Structure formats: C-alpha cells, structure tokens
Amino acid sequence: MGVPQAMAALRDKAALVRESLQKSQAITESMVSILGSFDHRLSSLETAMRPTQIRTHSIRRAHENIDKTLKAAEAILGRFDLTRKAEAKVLRGPHEDLESYLEAIDQLRSNLQYFTTHKCFKRTSGIITHANNLLTKAISKLEDEFRNLLTNYSKVVEPDRLFDGLPDSLRPSATSPGKRNDSKKDSDNQKNSENAVYTPPTLIPPRVLPLLHNLAQQMVQAGHQQQLFRIYRDTRASVLEQSLRKLGVERLSKDDVQKMQWEVLEAKIGNWIHYMRIAVKLLFAGEKKICDQILAGIDSLRDQCYAEITANSVSVLLSFGEAIAKSKRSPEKLFVLLDMYEIMRELQSEIDYLFGTKSSTEMRESAQSLTKRLAQTAQETFGDFEEAVAKDATKTAVLDGTVHPLTSYVINYVKFLFDYKTTLEQLFQEFEESDTEAQLKTLTTRIMEALQTNLDGKSKQYKDPALTQLFLMNNMHYIVRSVRRSEAKDLLGDDWVQIHRRIVQQHANQYKRISWAKVLQCVTIQGAAPAGGGGILGGDSGSGISRAMVKDRFKNFNAQFEDLHMRQCQWNVPDSELRESLRLAVAEVLLPAYRSFHKRFGQVLPMAESGKSPCKYIKYKPEDLERMLSEFFEAALGFLLLVWPVGPWGELLPSMYSSRNSGCAEDWDVTLRAGPRRGPVVNSCWLRGDHRVPLANLGVKNKGFENVGEVITNSTFVQDISLNLGLKLAGSSNVGLMDQKLNEQ
C-alpha cells in the first residue's frame, strides 16, 4: 500500500510542475511580443530624430570654430599691437631706456617668428617684410649703442693706475730715487714675486658690463656675430695698445736693437721686464676678465676676440725679447738675459692660463719659444764668457800693480752669477742637465782658471820682476778674498780657497826675495871678506871689514832703499790687511839686519873717519826706515766725482763717462752698470795724481741727475765699496767718502 501512494504523490507533483512551465512559456512569449513592439517603435523614433541630431552637431562645431577664430583674431590683433608698440620703442632708440629697447627687440623677433609660421594670411609676407626691416633697424641702433657704450667706457689706463695694482715691493714708489736694495734682497723679492698679490685695474665699470653683455647677446641672436667681433676687437685692442704705449712700450726691431748703445739697451731691457709683468698680470688679465663677462656664453667668439685683442700687444712685447735673444752675444748681456729668462719663467703659468685656448695657440707658443731661446742664448753667453776671459788682450797695464780691471770685472761677474744660482739651475735643466750644481761648479772653476792664466800673461808686461809678483799677489788675494766672502766658496770648496791662499803667499815671498835680497846683502855681515887696504874695523866677533866696504855697504843700501822707496811708494796693495802684513814681513827681515849693522858700524865709522860726519853714508836710523816702510804701497790720492741718472722705478740708470784731463797722469774711465735687479757697477776706474774731476768735465749737466757723490781713493783702482745709495765699485778697500756715508762690503 505504501508504494502506490508514493507514486500517486509524485504524479501529482509532476503535474503541478508541468502546469507551471506552461504558464512561464506563455508569459515569455507575451514579453517577447511586447519587446518586439518596443524595438519597432524605438527604431521609428530614431529615424525621426536623426535630422535633429545632425543639425545639433553642426551647430556645436560651428560654435567651436567661431571661438577658435575669435581667439586667433585676438592673437593676431595682439601681435599687431605689440609690433606697433615695439616699433615706437625702436624709433625712439635705446638711449632713453635700454632695457625696454631690448624687450622690444625680443618682441619683434617673437612676432617675426609667429608670422613666419602663419603664412596663411593674405598680408603675411608684407607683415614679415615690415618686421624684418624694423628688426634690422633696431639691431643697427643696437650696434651703435654697443659701440658707443664700449667706446665711452673704454679708457686708456694711466701708468699710475697700473702701478697701484702692483705689489708694494714692485711699485716705483717703493724705492726712493737712488736707493736700491742689495742684490740678494732683490733676488729674494724676485723669488717671492710669484706669491705677490696683483690687482688688475677696472677696465670697464662693473655696472656697465651686464648691459654690454645683453647687447652682445642680442647682436648674436640677430646673426651679427662678425659685427660684434669687429666692434669689440677694434675698440679694446686700440685701448690696450695705447695703455702700453703710455706705459713706455715701443716696437723695436732687431736692427733697432743692434744700433743701440749697450747702456741705453740695458735700461730698455730693465723696463721691458717691468712691462711684461704689468702687461701679463694686470692688463691681459683684466682684458680676459671683461671679455669673459661681456661675451659669456659665446665661447668661440669670446676666445677669438680675446686672442685678436691681445695679439699685437703680445707681438710687440715678445718681439723685443726675440731681438735681444738673437742679438750679438757679449758677456755683459748674460745678466739681462737671465733677468729676461726669469720673468718669462715667472709669467709662464699666467701665460698658459690667459692664452690657453685654441685661438691663442700662436701667442702661447711664441712665449714658450722666447723662454727657450733666452735660455739657449744665456747658456751660450755663459760659455762665451770663459773664452772671453781667457782671450782678453787688454793692453792697458795697471802701472802700480794693483788689482787689474779684468780681475774685478770677472769676480763681480761671478758674484752676480750666484745671485742667479736657482735661475741657472733651471736654465741647465732646460737642456736636460742631470747635476746642475756640478755643472755650475765646473763652469765657475774654468772661469777662474782662465782668469789666472790671463793674469799670468798680463804680468809679463812688467819689466820689474818684483812688480810682477806684487801684481799677481794682489790679484790672487782679491780673487781668494772675494770667493771667501761669496757663495762661490760653498761651490768651489775650502780646498780651493786654501790652495790659492798658498799661491798668494808664494807671490808675496817671491816679491820679498826679488825686491829685498840685494838690500839685505848690504847690511849682512856674514860672508863679508876683509879688504886689503883702508884699515880694518874690528868687531865683537873678531872678524873685520874694511872702512871702504862699510862705506860702500851704507852707500849701496841708501841708494837701493831710496830707489825701492821711490818706486814702491807708487805701487799699490789695495787691501789694508795684506798691505800691512807685507810691510811687516819686509820689516821683520830688514829692520833687525839694519839695526844690527847700524849698531855695529854706525858708531865706529865716525871715529875711523877722524871726526868727519857720517851722515854722508849713514843717512837713516832704524826708526826712519820703519817710518818709510809704512809709506810703501800707497799710491797717490785721486778724486773721482760720480754722477748717475735715476729711472722711474728708482733704479740707477746706466751711464758711461770717459775723459782725459791734463791734471791726471793717465786716463780715467768710469763705467756705471745698472740692471733691473741691482745698482750700477763701476767696472773700471783709473785715477792718478792729486786731482779733482769737476762735473763739467764729465760732459753732463746737473739737470736730470741725482745722487752726486765724491769718492777719494789712494788707489789707481777703486775696490769693492758700496755707497748707501747702492753703488757698487770694483777696486780698493782703502776709500773715503766726502759728504756721504761709505759702507764697506
């Protein structure tokens, strides 16, 4: 019973499901029918609305086009308005308001670019032509403004302004006229110059530089680079060259240099060294500074401008150095060549910086070439000096046997060389010399040997062999003393000094032997044989000599001593210590012998002569001889008046005065040598007799000359003295100075 009931229940449920599905199908079909009706209606509506939609889209597009057209028209009208305003500013010119004028040019350039890219308008070409013409006119006025502004503010730099930019030690006012630091101090100043502070002058006021920069930028944007280049180059180059000319720079050819007197040329070289320092560290540096500011951002044009602005000025300066380096070599040129080499070495880093671009290659290489040429010429001149010393054939004899001018000249030359020791070592390194100090020692030794050889030859001019030895003694002593007091001692060594001191002593001993041997024989008892007649004068020793021999001995002694006194009082030993030691050496031999001879026979001879006066034979007491010996080696006093001009830096300018006066026994000659680092040197000075040389005899006038000093000397040659004015002389140390203080070296 249970299963049939369940099956019946399932059949009932299935019937209900079937009925529900049938109802759903009917509803679905009804909805499909309704939706199909809606689709048909919407399609009809859409067909009806399409024309309206098309008209609405056209209206919207037209509105957008109208907006764009209005905006374009507004922009075009604005361009026209701006062009009109810019035109008004251009016509007024840049004088009233340069900044506004530059803005107007920028606006014109912008408008021109706009109309060039919008050529669809009918009048575009006309507008472009008008804008171009207006811009050309504006740039033309801009060029004029740039030229006027640059010209008006580019002024020639006065020398005083340049001097103000130098370190205190290098300013002309730093050295009072006629006074110079000694050479070592000058050398120290030279070495410290690289650390000195230089202040380039203000070539153009700082407030003007931005305006010039803006003008330059506008000209470049307008394509007027060449016009800008020409204006800037011509204006600044002219001012730079005028500034150098006002300072004293002049173009000199090799022929001009060859024709100049050495003294004039030497002064010009000293000035050239100052000019080079001022030009590079002040003028060229200042020129680069303003060039970098005005032409900032225009690198190629900037470098080319600076190169061409400075090209002629650099050429003028370097051509003088080249002319000196190529001129005929002579020993006196070595020091100025070294000075020139020093300044080129000092300025090398600045030159490399200032002229480091490709446009300035020629100037940089020219400076490097000059440095090497100066080094080469200086080295060759140094070598020539040794040969010149060895071959010096001066015929002028130093009559009193004093220090020869050649000796003084060579020793002073060597002393000055040691002021340049560092420079010489750098110079040798230019030619890859390994041991520069050893080479300097070798060259110095060879110069000394050449001098000694030459002096040996000159000593043969003397007929009196004693004077020959005195001459060699004086000169060798002067050499040794000078070396001991200079840096040459450290280089040549103590052994060299000791060897040559012994040579001095050898010449002194030879002088004593030659001069006094015969005189001593007259008062030497030993070896005297008794005469056959005339009576015998007894002595304590038991031996005796004849009266005739005693008379002859005194007579010969008197004659020989008087002859020596007369001649050798005219001879000169300029060094006071050497003079006294030589007198003492003679006295130590002569006076004891004479005193003994005089004591033994001076009292006996009158009795033997039966009361006759012995003065005919015994003319001198030992005290008389001692007094007369103190007069030996004292040449007659002479007077020398020295005059020299003073240059703008307070340096003593070179001068040479030569004269002959009937009041002097021989010529006198004075040569004042002045260089950029030292005072003048008297290389030669011969005086004889008690004579004062008046200023008029020098052939110069007081006007234009300062520092007149009067030197009194007892020598025919003035030795190593220094006035407080910086004057260096070569010759005797026994010197006095009237009206001025004398400082012995």
Automatic annotation (TrEMBL):
Keywords: Exocytosis, Protein transport, Transport. Residues 271-631 form the Exocyst complex subunit Exo70 C-terminal domain. GO terms for molecular function: phosphatidylinositol-4,5-bisphosphate binding. SUPFAM superfamilies: Cullin repeat-like. Residues 164-200 are annotated as: Disordered. Residues 179-191 have a biased composition (Basic and acidic residues). GO terms for cellular component: exocyst. GO terms for biological process: exocytosis; protein transport. It comes from the Eukaryota. It holds the Pfam family Exo70_C. InterPro entries: Cullin_repeat-like_dom_sf, Exo70, Exo70_C. Belongs to the EXO70 family. Component of the exocyst complex. This is Exocyst subunit Exo70 family protein. The lineage of its organism: Eukaryota, Viridiplantae, Streptophyta, Embryophyta, Tracheophyta.
